[in-house]
Write a structure and sequence with these properties.
Blueprint lengths: L2 H4 L4 E3 L5 E4 L2 E5 L7 E7 L1 H6 L3 H15 L7 E4 L3 E4 L2 E4 L10 H9 L8
Parallel strand pairs: 1-7
Antiparallel strand pairs: 1-2, 3-4, 4-5, 6-7
Length: 119
Amino acid sequence: MDLLRDVLDKQLVDRHGVKMGKVDGIVAELRRDGPPRVVAIEVGAIVMARRFGQRPQQWTTWLASKLGGEVHSRPHRVAWSTVRDVGVDLKLDVAVSDTAIFDWQDWLRDRVVSKIPGA
């Protein structure tokens, strides 16, 4: 498997078919006695900002922590062990409701969008 080609930027789909976003990063464990092992995939704006350099990542992390608290100042990680199929999409054996991936959307809906007349 070509990890970058087959995994990075692929659509994540939970066990119920709900789209969870795209894979923004890959976390690997370096081992002395063998090749690196993938342990998690990362999702979210902080990971995406990291691709553009240290300064965008720092700014995005700061903004996320100010708006959402310390818990949102870290990337969302999904264990590689939950990946069930790598195809057009990455199918996971996890429900999006069991993760914090949609917390920002929920916060925005509850505190901003719901206040807009007619929304």
